[in-house]
Amino acid sequence: MAKNLLIVESPAKAKTIEKYLGKDFTVVASRGHVRDLPKGDKAIDIKNGFKPQYEVIPDKKEVIKQIKGIINEHEEVWLATDEDREGEAISWHLAHVLGLDILNTRRIVFNEITKPAITKAIENPRTIDQNLVNAQQARRILDRIVGFQLSPILWRKIKTGLSAGRVQSVAVRLIVEREREIINFEPSSTFKVTAEFILDNGSKIQAELAKKLPTKESAKEFLESCVGSAYEITKLETKPSKKSPSPPFRTSTLQQEASRKLSFSVQQTMRVAQTLYEAGYITYMRTDGVDLSQQALDQAGNVIRNLYGEDYHKSRQYKTKTSNAQEAHEAIRPTDLSRSQLEDKDMGRNEQRLYELIWKRTLASQMSDARLEKTTVDITASSNQAIFKARGEVLKFDGFLKLYLESKDEDEEDEDTKGVLPPLNVGQVLELDYMQALERFSRPAPRYTEASLVKKLEELGIGRPSTYAPTISTIIKRTYVVKEGREGNPRNLGLFTLRDGAVSEGIKTEITGAEKAKLFPSDLGMVVNDFLVKFFPSILDYGFTAKVEDEFDKIAEGDQIWQDMLAEFYEGFDPLIKETAETAERASGERELGIHPKSGKVVMARLGRYGPMVQLGSQEDEEKKFASLRKDQRLETITLEEALDLFKLPRVLGEFEEQPVKANIGRFGPYVQLGKLFASLEEGDDPYSIELERAIELIKKKREIEANKIIKSFTEDIQILRGRWGPYLKYQGTNVKLPKDVEPENITLEDAHRLFEENKNKPKRGAKKKTTAKSKAADDKKETKKKPAAKKKPTTKKKKS
DNA sequence: CAGTGAGCGAGCTTCCGCTTGACTT
Questions:
Q1: Which of A27, A64, A237, A760 supports an S-S bond with A14, CB 3.0-4.6 Å?
Q2: What is the mean pLDDT of each run of 10 residues along chain A (801 residues)?
Q3: Would residue A542 show up in a list of annotated catalytic residues for this protein?
Q4: CA–C1' A377–B2 (A)
C-alpha cells in the first residue's frame, strides 16, 4: 500500500496524477464540495456571528466513507484541491470531515496537470489558508441569505415556487432590459449611396459615398446632381496593418465560439467537453485561465514549425483580463497538440468537431500575426465634388489565419466587405456603371443568445465557469425566460438608381426582426424583475457582485473579518426584506388598457393564476370576463383592440344535436367544442371566423378517430386505446403504455389489473428531479380541477368582503 | 389535454459553486 493519500476534486484528474506520482501515492477524488449548509433555516445563526452549520452533502456520504475506509492505510494525507477560494474550502471541509489536523495537514496546489508542475507542488507543501476559506464562507453565506430571503418574498407577493439570487436575478434583468430597449426602439433611416465603376480592362470597383444621406428627397437630389458627372481618383493611400490571434479558450469563450461556429447550446458545449476531458483529450473545461503550460507552449512550437514552417510560429503567453478570475486551471487545450483529430471511434461527431475547434484555436494562439495591406481610394465626382471611397485589403502574409478565424457576434459585424483592388493611380478617370441610394434602417441592440449572455455576465464578473450553463437552465426552468426563434416581417426600403444618365425609383424588401435561438423574457420574468429592481435595487445592481467580490478579496488577504463584512451587508439588507414583506402590494404586472366601448367597463391585462390574461371589468364588478393572452402576446405590449378581440372567444357558432357548438383557443391551440368533445382546428381554420358547418365537419372527424381509438373495452374506465404513441391501457384515469411484446387485442382484464399494479410503483419517466416536480404539478392540477367543478355555477358567488 | 382567473387552509418551494453519475424514453 502506498504511503501517501492525495485528494483532488475530479476523478479524471486523479487518474492522470496517479500516473505521474507512481506507487508511493494513492490519489482519490472528492468530486467537488463534500459539505454544505443544510436546506432549512437553522443553517446560519445570524444573531450569533453568522455561525454556519455544515452537513455532509447526502450525495457525498459514499465518497467520504470510501476515503475514510482507506485513510488509515496511509501515513500522510495531501490535500490537492483546486487553487482557488472554493478549492481551499473543499480542503478545509475535507480536513474536518476526515478528522485531519487543520493546522498541519499538507496542502498543495498546481494549476496545470503536468509532471513538472505536480512534482514541484509536492516539494512545496503549505497548510490550509484560513483567510481564503473564510472568504469562501462569506461568499456562501451571503448567497444563501440573499437567495433564501428574497425567494419567499416572491412566493408571497407574486407566485409560489419562484426564486431569486445574486446571479440569476441579474441575468434575468439583463434580458428584460434588453427586451425593453428593443420594444421602445424607434428605427431611423438613412440612405447609403454606392457606386460601381468600370475600368478599361473590364474589371469593376465598388465605392461608397463618405456620408450617409438623411432623407429620401436628399438621396434623390444627390443622384440627380451626379447625372453627367465625371469621376476621377484624387487620392490613394496604402497602409500596412495586422491581425493577431485570440487567446486560447476558457469556458466562456469556448461556449461562445461553439455557439457561433457549431450552433451548440452552452449546456451542450459543456457536455461534449466533459466527454473529451474524461477521455483525456483536453484539459479541464471549467476554467477562467488563458495561460498554457510550458510543455504545451513547446509542443505547439514544434507542431507549427512542422506543419507550416518557422515563419508561422510566434510563442505567446496570454493573461486574463476578466476581473474576478481565479485562474485555478490553465486554458482549455488539447492534452496532446500533435493530435489534430480524434481517432477514437467512441467519440461522436460533436466531440470531433469541438475537439478540432479547440485544437485550431490553441495552435493559432501560438502563430504569427497576419499581415495585411489596406488601401483607401478617394474618387471625386466632378459635378458636385462629392467623394466616394473604395477600400481594398490584400493579405500579405496569412499567419494564424491559415488555421483559424474567430467568428463575430451579430452586434459587431463588420459591414463593408473588402476585397482586392486592381492597380489604380491618382488622376485616373473612371467610368460609372451605376450608382444607387438604398435606404438603411438603424437596428436596436440584438437580443441575447445563451452565449452572448455568458459573455456579458463574465464582463460583469457575475457567475463562474462552473455555473454559466446551470444559471441559464435555471432561469429557463423558472420560466422567467424562453429561448425561441421568431419569424421576421418584410419591410420596404427606398431605392434610387442612376444608370445611363437617368435616375429611377424602385423598392427593395428586407426581412426584419427574424430571430433564432434567442432569449426572450416572459411576462412573469418581467414582473418578477420589476418587483426586485423596485424593492432591492442594491442587490439587482449590475455592480453588486463586483462590490462584494472586493470584500471577499479583502477577507482572503486577511484585511477584513468575514463576520464583519456579512454584518455590514445584512444591516442594509434586512430592513429591505422586512419593509418589503410588510408594505409591498401583490405584483401582477397589472396594466389598464382602456374602456370597453359597449359596456363601459375597464379592460386590463395582468398575470393571473394560469398566466397572462386580460380582464373585462374591475375587481369590484359583479360580472367579469377573462381571456388568456395568446402565445405571441405580451402584457407589456398588448393593446385595447387586441384585448377586445380576445373577449370575442368563446364564440357560440350554433347548435348541433341540440347542443351548442363553441369555438375557442385553449392551451393546445384553437378548437371547437360540442359537449365534452374537443376538436382542434386545422391549418387554415380561424376560431374568430369559423362557421357552424365546418365545425360540425371537424367534430364528426374527431368522433371517428375517437371511435377507432378503442381497441378493447372492459368497463367504462378500463380500456385498451390507440394513442399517438401507440396502444396504451387507460385504467381509471391513469395511462399505462403497453409493453412492446404484447398484442393489444389479446389483453385480458387480469392483464390490465396486473399492468396497472406494476406501473403504480414505477418512477415516472424523465430525470429524477423532474419526476418529483412533474408528479407534483400533476397533483396540483387535479386539485384545482376538482374545486371549480364543485362550484361550477357561482360566477357571482364572490361573497363580500 | 382543452373549463379557470378563488383561497379558514397541509406543507412545500428557494441560493451559488464545486463535481459526476445512471432510473429509462
A1: A27
A2: 92 94 94 94 93 95 96 95 96 97 95 91 96 98 97 94 96 98 96 95 92 96 96 96 96 97 97 95 96 96 97 94 83 96 88 97 97 96 96 95 84 64 94 97 97 97 97 95 94 97 96 95 95 97 97 97 98 96 90 88 88 86 83 90 86 85 78 83 82 86 77 74 68 68 74 70 37 34 34 33 30
A3: no
A4: 66
Residue nearest to nucleotide B4 (CA to C1'): A788
From CA A115, how far away is CA A697, in angstroms rounded?
Answer: 76
Q: Diameter of chain A by CA atoms?
A: 99
Provide the residue type at A101 as one letter. D
3-state secondary structure of A37: coil
* Centroid of chain to Cα A705: 41
C1' of B22 to CA of A765 (Å): 14
C-alpha cell at A238: 496604402
Long-range contact pairs involving A198-205 (C-beta distance under 8 Å, separation at least 24): A198/A430, A198/A431, A198/A432, A198/A433, A199/A422, A199/A430, A199/A431, A201/A422, A203/A422, A204/A433, A205/A377, A205/A390, A205/A421, A205/A422, A205/A424, A205/A430
First to last CA, chain A: 78
Residue count of chain A, please give it. Answer: 801
Give the amino acid at A512.
Answer: T
Burial of A642 (0-12, 13-18, 19+ CB in 10 A): middle
User: Which nucleotide has the least CA–C1' distance to A609?
Assistant: B5
